Records
---
Amino acid sequence: MTDIQLSTETMKYIRMATQMIHVDILDCVQEDDLLVFVVRKGHLGAAIGKKAKNLERLRNVFKKTIKFVEKDNDRNRFIQNLCKPYKVESVTLSGDDTSPVAQVKVNASEKSRLIGKGGRNIELIRKLARRHHNIRDVQVK
């Protein structure tokens, strides 16, 4: 994992969210009206909360769309977690081991939604993959 640098504002979001939902948050990425929190493996359910109560509380406090991603030390599973809720058929890594390129295969009907309007979703996936596993690029097939 590369060193993750957090802005003061991002640290504030992590601190506030951790205090509210009582889950250890490893990272946070802010993109316009979206906050993506990376939580420890096995803590995704607790982060979302029963009947998505924690998710709703954070939405109301931050006035932003909130997404949680479960951290995984396995690169392929982490990429799959980043792509949720879309069903990933396969993830293949190519290139050198120090900074590989990930190819994500999804159903053709979900490809455009995974990429997002103006490539917004795929850019966020690339950013988090680079931050946590030094993956140079993520391509959708």
---
Amino acid sequence: MNLTIYLAGEIHTDWREQIKVKAKEKGLPLTFVGPQENHERSDNIGEFISGEQPNKLYKDHTASNINNLRTQVLMQKADLVIALFGEQYKQWNTAMDASMAYAYNKPLILIRPESLIHPLKELSNRANVTVESVDQAMEVLAYIFE
């Protein structure tokens, strides 16, 4: 059995790579998908496809349409979603993706530090499992295969 995991969360740190390495070390049959990790590409995809937009609002709107389509397609094909919240970045996209996982009835593992217990209490309550680290999330995934 191979599972496809959608990795939702900020794109500025190497947390996705940590998960991929740990999955390989554990020999877990996992395929990973997620948002576009090239920030410039993500921000400019609308203009790349549709041409220059008249202002920043339209530029963001056009890119958001394409990024949201990508997220929807990949998340709906995923078996499970992991959403990571860290302390360093504002994470509106992560909150949106976690909410989409819930709306799509996708199993959800939420990773958040202790300092975000209160701000994320509603999302945490909706997640199947909430943990505080990538290592704990990997142990949850490994348990699925026992």
---
Amino acid sequence: MITAEQVKSLIEDKLVEKDCFVVELEIASGNQINLEVDGLKGFSIQDCIEFSRAVENNLDREVEDFELHVSSPGLDKPLRVIQQYQKNVGRDVKVVLKEGNVVKGELKKVDEAGIVVEYSYKERIVGKKKKQTIVKEEEIQFKNIKETTLIISFNK
């Protein structure tokens, strides 16, 4: 059986060379290798080909047959590793917390413990005729996040 450590060792140099990171690596039954890679500057089709070759050219199908899928994470998939959060600072996100609350806003900051999301809302202030826009930054610990997805907008 092919192991995740084997595959990681085969792509280690390519990860450094391309300034990329592994989002997910799964070895399913029958040696089906599913590898998702992303980079701070994106991940092109050519990058997929190069990572695929780095694995295929170093595993022997005569010894052990395998199926290989290399891709970038889709825009519709949740963020899963800290590097994805770092890559998307400045973009709008939807954060679903474990207790069920949802926070939508701009991802402002990422550190080892969690993230900061900035959002605005309108509230009536005593003594004012119109509702005022209130801007708030909320710190959210990774341990409290159930799922974070990008809000895709074609209007910007």
---
Amino acid sequence: MHQLIDKKYKIIIYVIFLFILSTTSGKYIENKNYFSENNKIKVDVEGLSNSKNSEISDELDNILSNNIFNVDKEEIKKIISKYNIVEEYNIKKVYPSIIRIKIKPTEFIARISDKHQLLVGSNGKLIENKRYDKELPYIFGEFKTKEFLIFKENVERSKFSISEFKMLYFFPLKRWDVLTTNDILIKLPKENLTKSLDLAHKIISQDYLKEKNFIDLRVNNQLIIK
């Protein structure tokens, strides 16, 4: 009887041991598949139009390897940075085989006054978009991205907004004039833009100056109103 009990006990131990081995083996196979180097990477791009999302996704497919651990984010950034419509973006790896890219498009804030009618984004870049028909201020003159972004930052810090301007004029002396939506021309100095814009805003808001449509602030400590 004692030998029979020992035999049953050994069988139970053997069965438990086999179960543990089979479970461990199953987990190992599952993890091997999960981190396989042959998992085809899928690129999921969102935030822009369907056609533009697909265009970026297809371009990224051509440079990505089949191993998500070898994906070079710098290579992805090089491709995305070619699209002027992009303001911000976020890259996320979703294991085992998905690259998820969320894009924030730039805001259109002005138009270039030439035959191409390019749009100016809040990122300072020029974008071709013939379907965009909302009213925007026109920019005249040749400017660099840095110069426009500095001007934009000053406007944002002032009591004005870009939408209150009908036209923007940039001069070779790196100075701006603006024409408001109320047809008031403001000639701005090269320096102290925010302070000058606030002063112009204050002048415009005065009732006794409502008939005036010309403000010259180019000379320091000198104000001309007509």
